[in-house]
Amino acid sequence: MTNVLTDSNAKPDKLNKFERFKAEKDGLAVKDELERFAEIGWEAVDETDLTQRLKWLGIFFRPVTPGKFMLRLRTPNGIVTSQQMQTLAEIVQRYGEDGNADITTRQNLQLRGVLLEDIPNIFRRLKAVGMTSVQSGMDNVRNITGSPVAGLDASELVDTRDLVQAVQDMITNDGEGNAEFTNLPRKFNIAIEGGRDNSVHAEINDIAFVPAYREGTLGFNVLVGGFFSAKRCEAAVPLDAWVEPTVDNVVGLCRAILEVYRDNGLRANRQKARLMWLIDEWGMEAFRAAVEKQLGQALFTAAAEDEIDWDKRDHIGIFPQQQAGLNFIGLHVPIGRLYAQDMFDLARISEVYGSGEIRLTVEQNAMIPHVPDDALEALQQEPLLQRFTLDPAPLTRSLVSCTGSQFCNFALVETKNRALALAQEVEAEMELPNSVRIHWTGCPNSCGQPQVADIGFIGTKARKDGKTVEAVDIYMGGKVGKDAKLGDRVMKSIACEDLKPVLKQLLTEHFEAIAK
Ligand code: SRM
Ligand code: SF4
Question: Is 317 a residue of the active site?
Answer without folding.
Answer: no
